[in-house]
Amino acid sequence: xxxxxxxxxxxxxxxxxxxxxxxxxxxxxxxxxxxxxxxxxxxxxxxxxxxxxxxxxxxxxxxxxxxxxxxxxxxxxxxxxxxxxxxxxxxxxxxxxxxxxxxxxxxxxxxxxxxxxxxxxxxxxxxxxxxxxxxxxxxxxxxxxxxxxxxxxxxxxxxxxxxxxxxxxxxxxxxxxxxxxxxxxxxxxxxxxxxx
Length: 196
Prior knowledge:
Elements: E1 4-9, H1 14-29, E2 33-38, H2 41-48, H3 57-74, H4 89-101, H5 106-118, H6 127-136, H7 141-148, H8 151-166, E3 174-177, E4 180-183, H9 188-195
Parallel strand pairs: 1-2
Antiparallel strand pairs: 1-3, 3-4
Helix pairs in contact: 1-3, 2-8, 4-5, 4-7, 4-8, 5-6
């Protein structure tokens, strides 16, 4: 049986971004397949009663400093975009849509969005900026808009989010190796152990 890491994520989560900078190489080292599972973090919070650390000022201060420490350790940029936290409903519908309709371009989509948010600090709450990012990455912005309004795409994101909650997910990122869940980007060493 081949080894897989299921990666439940939301583009608007800085911890999801940090995990994404490391997971492909971690999986490659362990001969595991990385399976991207887009979900809506807002929906997970609603279903579980959890909330963003950004909502608790004392916790937010600590978490943001801690995340910078990890970014430094990983040798990556982490810069918070304006208006954080943003509503990622259309971005995550877009992720599901690209996975459904252009799977070969899925990683290009995720890369473009994570970079735009967490490296370039672009305000992806603004549809015009989202359209610009899509075009720069070679996507059709009008096609994307149509997809995000599509019933099949909306249902697929809802079902993925519900599945995540059923499996015990309460935040992002959450990774599964078999039945074992690992929450947070600071559990990558446990994922590596599970794969070994």
